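User: New here, any thoughts?
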Amino acid sequence: MSREQVEIRATDWLERRSGPEWGPDDAHGLDLWLAESPEHEAAFWRLEHGEERLRRLPALKGALVGERPGSHNRRWMWPAAAALAACLVAVAVLPRLVAPPRVVSTEIGGRETVPLPDGSRVELNTSTKLRVSVSSDARSVWLDHGEAFFDVAHDAAHPFVVHAGPRTITVLGTKFSVRRDGDRVQVAVLEGRVRLDSTTGPRAQAMVTRGDVAMASAASILVAPNAPEKVSEALAWRTGRLKFLESPLKDVAAEFNRYNQTKLVITDAQAEETRIGGNFAADNVEDFAELLRNAYGFEVKKEGAVLKISSPS
C-alpha cells in the first residue's frame, strides 16, 4: 500500500471515529489496522494531531495579535509563530487529505453506473454503498456493502484498490466485480488480473485472473480457476438477470430477495435443497414463483409482501 493510500485510509478511520455510528467493533478494527504497520500509526498520528492544531488555531492567532513590541512576553513570539506556521501548513495540506470520499449508493432493485475522474467506471448493483476517493495521487474505493463491477483505467503508477471489509483487491487496469456480504467477499474477474489480500487476522493472498472466481471468508480464500460459467453467473445482474447453475432453491431465493421488496420464504428442507438452473429477470419474483408452481409443483402462498414456497403436500 502506497503512502497516499495509507493517508487516505487513516483519514477514513479518523472521519469514522468522529461519527455517530462509531462503536466497539469499529474501535477494534482501528486497533488492528494500527497494529499492522508503524506507517499506519504514523499516518493516523499526523492527521489526529494536525486536527488538534487546527482546533487551537484561533487561540494561537489571538495570542500573536495581542503581543506588544518590547513587552516581556516577546520571548514567546517565535514559539507561538512556529506553532501558528504549523497550523497554517495543516490548513493548506489537510483539506486534500481529510476531504471525505464521495458516497454513491443504490436502493433495493437499483443499478447505477458512475464514471470516475481517472477514466474508470463502476457499476453498482442492488442495495450497494460505495465510498470513492480517486485523484491524481491515489485511487481507492470502500465497498461498505453490496456488489459492484469495476472497469479500471490502466495506471501503473497508481494501483486501484477496493477495500471490502477485511479484504483489499488491488489492480492496475482490468474488469472485475466485487460482492461483499459482511466479511464474506466474492471476486469475479472478466479481464486482466487482481490481487486479493487480507487486512486483518491471518495473512492470506491470492492472484485472481481472467475467468476466475474467488470466495474469501474471514479465515481463507478459495479460488475457482478457469470458471467462465461462474463468472457469467456472477455478472448476470449487469443485464438485469439472475443466472443459476443447479443452485439450491434456498440460495436462489436469497438472490431474488436482494432485488425485490416481495420476499421468497422457503418453508421446508426438501424444497430448500431443490436444484434450480436457468436465467431469470431479477425484478420479477412473482413470475419466478409461478414457474416454481408450474414446473416443480411447489405450493405458493402469498401473504402480504411474502411468497411462501413449500413442497407439494
About this structure: The two ends are 58 Å apart (CA to CA). The first strand starts at residue 102 and ends at 105.
